[in-house]
Amino acid sequence: MSILNGRILAKIIQKEIKQEIQRLKQKPGLAIILVGDDPASHLYVSLKEKACKQTGIHFEKIIYEEKTPEEILINKIAKLNNRSDIHGILVQLPLPGQNPDNVITAIDPKKDVDGFHPKNLTLLEEGKPCLVPAVVLGIIKLIDETKHDLSGKKAVIISSDIFAKPLLKTLRNRSLNTEVIRWDNVNLAEKTKTADVLICAIGKPNFIKGEIIKKGAIVIDVGTTRVGNKVVGDIEQESAKQIARFLTPVPGGVGPMTVAMLLKNVLEAHRIQTGVGNNQKIY
Length: 283
What we know:
Blueprint: E1 2-3, H1 6-22, E2 29-35, H2 39-55, E3 58-64, H3 70-81, E4 88-91, H4 100-105, H5 118-125, H6 134-144, E5 154-158, H7 161-173, E6 177-181, H8 188-192, E7 197-200, E8 218-221, E9 225-227, E10 230-232, H9 237-241, E11 246-247, H10 254-274
Parallel strand pairs: 1-11, 2-3, 2-4, 5-6, 5-7, 7-8, 8-11
Antiparallel strand pairs: 9-10
Function: Catalyzes the oxidation of 5,10-methylenetetrahydrofolate to 5,10-methenyltetrahydrofolate and then the hydrolysis of 5,10-methenyltetrahydrofolate to 10-formyltetrahydrofolate.
Domain Tetrahydrofolate dehydrogenase/cyclohydrolase NAD(P)-binding: 133-272
EC number: 1.5.1.5, 3.5.4.9
């Protein structure tokens, strides 16, 4: 059994990004809008800020109080859309009460480095070039690290339809027979036992046990839940290690890779807007 170490891989990717940025005359710029006092959201933004500083990406953090009207957020996004020094805009989710669809749709699709703007999701569905959600890119990169030919193999995603949709398309583009199921599917175990690639993103700690994982599977754990002083994934790690061929840890798996791929998207957004740099498409 091999651990797919997202921290190590993310460091390699960030080093490549840093080298690419050093060749640019203008630094790529990322602005993150953070609303409210949620500790997890503040932690995630601080990790993104740290990664930006390490790679040479200009970073701006705009913080708003919890009950800020969404019109104010949308007006701020409009100003960021018009700034030539800001190439990526991200609204940290979840929002404490504002409508996330309205806020995200206000972002210029060319600056939507989180990849959740409806236009980018439509382009992805149509198989056209676009900014792909960073978490999807991170998952794909981790799967690629296994060096396994997965053409014609079975993938099962346990998650909401909203999370799964861009991942589903990307996996099918790679000739994986992919199915999405909910955590409460009555045939859950039957389906997970057939999965050569099992991806779980439900936020239920230790929900998937080794006994319902296919022998030799690639298991990607996207879930993160704080239990006491620990962060725990959706996969029960100890039992999964006895069955899986490859497994992502929590923490240290998908999380660091999502941040690294966000930076990759910022660099790609910079290229799209300026016409300078190398195409960062990796999916």
